[in-house]
Amino acid sequence: MVDRLFSEASLAELYDPMTAGREDFAFYLPLVMSARAVLDVGCGTGELLRLAREAGHTGRLCGLDPAEAMLDVARARPDIEWVLGDLSSVSWDEGFDLVVMTGHAFQVLLGDEELRVALAAIRSALTEDGRFVFETRNPPARAWEQWTTGHPVEIIGASGAVVRMEREVETPVEDGLVSFTHTFTSPAWDRPEVSRSTLRFLDVAGLSSFLAAAGLLVEEQFGDWASGPLTDASPEIITIARRTA
What we know:
Layout: H1 9-12, H2 15-18, H3 24-33, E1 37-41, H4 47-54, E2 60-65, H5 68-74, E3 81-84, E4 96-101, H6 112-125, E5 126-137, E6 153-156, E7 162-169, E8 177-185, E9 193-200, H7 204-213, E10 216-222, E11 236-243
Parallel strand pairs: 1-2, 1-4, 2-3, 4-5
Antiparallel strand pairs: 5-11, 6-7, 7-8, 8-9, 10-11
Helix pairs in contact: 3-4
């Protein structure tokens, strides 16, 4: 889930180098460490759960992702559960006191029904006092305006080859959906790898409505990874929700 463009084996190895130094782990890791059983939805290569295990977490850690290539990387850590699939294909009954979705994985839930199914599955997976913690980009901040070919990223892959990634947004942006392409090129490759992705940008009111309908109550929301207040200018909508009775 984290980003479906990394579902190919040739690109999965690039995910961790590309996201090195990410700010969100400093926010999520203490929450994971304080929970007995954790489900990471859209776990990707499983780095967050690996960090938790290395920091001494002794409870249940489970990662869920629909990309086999990402889980192939994650399975280097056999003391964590790795499940291939998404929230429409799995079912847990009060198995976790914390469910997280990091890396803006929440935004790949594009349709209303897809979102309802996912939130219902998350509620079912939570214990009675469980928490669901995730983030989505704040629409008024218009993050997609920075996703242009003027900001290429260079990554060193596991093989040592340099890979350049460029992102270009398709216009216009419609109904809260932003579609864009990633183009990966490398001197070590015969041809570029091109992937198209779409993300949904839900505003605060819409997000709260979907959560409430699923039986999830918003406890706290922040606008950045330093736990700053949520404003129109905030880059993130970071949400902590709990299961209602």
